[in-house]
Amino acid sequence: MTHTTSETSSETSSETSSETADETASDPIAEGRERIDALDDRIIALIRERMNVSDRIQRARLASGGRRIQLARELEVLGRYREALGSPGTRLAMTLLELSRGRA
Q: Where does residue 102 fall: left (phi above 0), alpha (psi -120 to 50 degrees), or beta otherwise?
């Protein structure tokens, strides 16, 4: 069977595209990055949910004459994160607390 130059070029192009798609589909780095992106989206959603819950608690506490920030509770949160994640966990908890404190 004889192939013209355009047929051979077309077949080679199709094979190359197919191989590239296969490589991307089985690329552990790309797959891992997609998974991390999905996890980050979930983490961001959970942080936003945490901020909303914290806001409701703060409003209820203020309405009952309490303070906006309860330091004893924040220390509990810091301790839990430190215990689970070490020193970086403490920094993460501080960031979460800062995000969740709301506007003064």
A: left
Quickly list DSSP for 9-28.
Answer: HHHHHHHHHHHHHHHHHT-H
Pair 101, 69: CB distance under 8 Å = yes
Helix (H) or strand (E) holding 94: helix 87-100
Taking CB atoms within 8 Å and a gap of at least 24, the contacts of 36-43 are none
The larger pLDDT score, comparing residue 42 to residue 26, is at: 42
Average pLDDT rounded to a whole number, residues 83-101: 97
Confirm if 10 and 16 have CB atoms less than 8 A apart. no
The yes-or-no verdict on residue 16 having pLDDT over 70 is no
Please report where in the chains the tokens 């709301």 appear, as a residue. Answer: 102
**What single DSSP character describes residue 67?**
-
**Residues 54-76, mean pLDDT to the nearest whole number:** 94
> For residue 37, how many other CB atoms are within 10 A of its CB?
10
